[in-house]
Amino acid sequence: MKTDSKKIILSVLLLGTFSGCSLLISDSMIKGIHQKLDTNHDGYIDYSEYLADSNANMKDVKSEAKDRGMSVEAYQKWDFNRADSDGNGKISPQELINLARREL
Ligand SMILES: [Ca+2]
Ligand SMILES: [Ca+2]
């Protein structure tokens, strides 16, 4: 189901809720998730693509933001930036894999 993969990507990106389970997510699954979020198929998730997914899961995002005492907007920026480890404004499949692995 689409919703399930969104939940997984959200959890990979948000981590707070799902970090223990990232062990169970294989690199190829993460790449598949990355492809789904990369809606213009340029090989990267940019911030607008991230936001499209994040905004579709606003209920979860709000509760994650609240847990961290952040506004939704600040939280989304922070969440995106921690995945974008080289800071070039887009998330590569490898960056997503690295994020999942380092937050174990
Ligand atoms: Ca893209
Ligand atoms: Ca990047």
Tell me what you see in this structure.
There is one protein chain. The protein has 6 helices and 2 strands, in the order ααβαααβα. Helices cover 63% and strands 4% of the residues. By secondary structure, it is mainly α. The radius of gyration is 12 Å and the shape is globular. A two-stranded antiparallel ribbon has the order 1-2. About 6% of the residues have low confidence.
CATH architecture group name: Orthogonal Bundle
| CATH topology heading | Recoverin, domain 1
The helix tally amounts to: 6
Strand content: under 5%
Give the integer mean of the pLDDT values. 83
Helix content: 55-70%
Class computed from helices, strands and strand pairing: mainly alpha
> What is the topology, as strand order, of the major beta sheet?
1-2
The CA-CA distance between the termini, in Å, is 25 Å
Gyration radius, in Å: 12 Å
Tell me, briefly, the overall form: globular
Can you tag this structure with a few keywords?
104 residues, mainly alpha, Recoverin, domain 1, two-stranded antiparallel sheet, 2 strands, globular, binds calcium ion
Strand-helix topology:
Elements: H1 2-14, H2 27-37, E1 45-46, H3 47-56, H4 58-67, H5 72-83, E2 90-91, H6 93-102
Antiparallel strand pairs: 1-2
Structure, briefly:
It is built from 6 helices and 2 strands; from the N terminus they run ααβαααβα. The protein has 104 residues and is mainly α.
